[in-house]
Amino acid sequence: MTITAGIDVGSTYTKAVLLNEKDEILARYMVQTGFKLAAAARRCYDAILESSGIRVDQVEYLIATGFGRHQVDFKDLHVTDLTASARGASLLFPGTRSILDVGGQTMKAIRVEEGGRVKSFRLNDKCAAGTGAFLEKTARYMGYETKDIGPLLQTSREPVEISGVCAVFAESEVINQLSLGTAPSEIMQGAIESLTGRSVQLMKRVKAEPEYTLIGGIMRFPTMPTAVRERTKGIKVNLPGEESNDTDLPQFVTALGAAVLGHRRLEKLAAEKAVS
């Protein structure tokens, strides 16, 4: 069995995936990144090997990706998260032509060609109001933690409008709604709707084509994919893990793509060796 690994060192979480030659996930693991990116990568990799029972010498190739990819000193190669995300999404959904990735610090819209090659992309990484960090800050303003966002969203009935075009203004709206006695669940739903609006606009900027695939940590909250689908009616929208109720899978797609590229790299090296 040929095993490759993909490590996605994100700004908020670090994810690792072990993949066999049939592109089947053997194991996956996730830890909070914190401030020491290299340490987070090592901690995550050691944990996935220990939990899976796979020895380090059994992993034939390791590709790092994400925000902290350059900090992974035990990698064989590194690739951009755009490249890895495209490969991971295309493995899960071969018909993918556009990807929306909403993470803790960035939002990305990516157009891909058949086979998972990046065609074009747009980023929204200048303002926190367009990222998952805005949801986390909103929760903290209201006295909740990140883990409470999902339950809050499930109890929402009538979201309030959060229209601020900047994180500072949006946060002011949240504070104002709290002073008016608005229920936290309605404020959180309003924050999701605001984030969804920004994501759809970003997809338009990249000239997104069907079918869409949604990835990133924010997609683990069912309300976000639902809101995207409501704004893109008539377009097929894929959500990794939806059919199996695997809510964490959207967070691992980029690490998965890095592991896929590891197998492609091994195939290329083998072909070059055969020729020589």
What labels describe this entry?
Nucleotidyltransferase, domain 5, 10 strands, 276 residues, 42% helix, 8 helices, globular, alpha/beta, 2 domains, 5-stranded mixed β-sheet
Can you describe what's shown?
The chain is of the alpha/beta class and 276 residues long. It folds into 2 domains: 1-93 and 244-276, Nucleotidyltransferase, domain 5; 95-239, 2-Layer Sandwich (Nucleotidyltransferase, domain 5), CATH 3.30.420. The protein is 42% helix and 20% strand. It contains 8 helices and 10 strands. The strands form 2 sheets. The protein has a 5-stranded mixed beta sheet with strand order 3-2-1-4-5. The protein has a 5-stranded mixed beta sheet with strand order 8-7-6-9-10. A hairpin with a 5-residue loop joins strand 7 and strand 8 (118-124). The chain is globular. The two termini are 25 Å apart. The mean pLDDT is 90.
